[in-house]
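Researcher: Good morning. I'm working through a list of sequences from a screen, and I'd like to move beyond sequence-only analysis. For each chain I'm collecting a predicted structure so we can compare shapes side by side. This is the next one on the list. No need for commentary yet; just the structure.
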Amino acid sequence: MVVIHHTAMTDAAAALARLCDPVSEVSAHYLIGADGRLWALVDEEARAWHAGAGGWGGRGDVNSASIGIELDNPGTAPFAAPQMAVLEALLADIMARRAIPATRVIGHACMAPDRKDDPGPRFDWRRLARAGLSVWPGPVMPARAPDWPAFRAAATAFGYPDAAPDKLLAAFRDRFRPRATGPLDGLDLALIRDLAARFPVDGTGRHP
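Model: Good morning. Structure tokens for this chain:
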């Protein structure tokens, strides 16, 4: 799989210094600057320490099963056009070479909702989906009676790990409803059910 992050640092130089510092005990396969500059930091065949605790699609130890891409962004700003263009090209290349389906391109918050929020609500997941590099729900009618057990079941079927309800909802909305606020509602439930129905995790923890 591929995990997308934001650096939450002042600039790409600061992020690069941290990612290359052994003392920090954090690394990633790639870093993309806001200006579109690309750094290849860890060989794709090697494990990078970018994900930490969490899981996706029933799979733990995400570090050993993923490629990590860091984006130079504080987490509160739009992602620059040159950066997104380079990300799309990089993703397309990685996915083609390694036969990674669009369902396996996720954000850090997707696999660790309890402790991470990146790449955040300003990241354009829908743009990636239009390019076939991620997934997006179809048009749906809001469910009449939203409830947490139904939402959690569908979220698990789609790939999300177990997490506190508020953190799980926040991670889902940051990706699929970035302007939504308030408690769980019928549209949240309808969207996650659509995703789970169209992009389910199979028994091996992998999407088809």
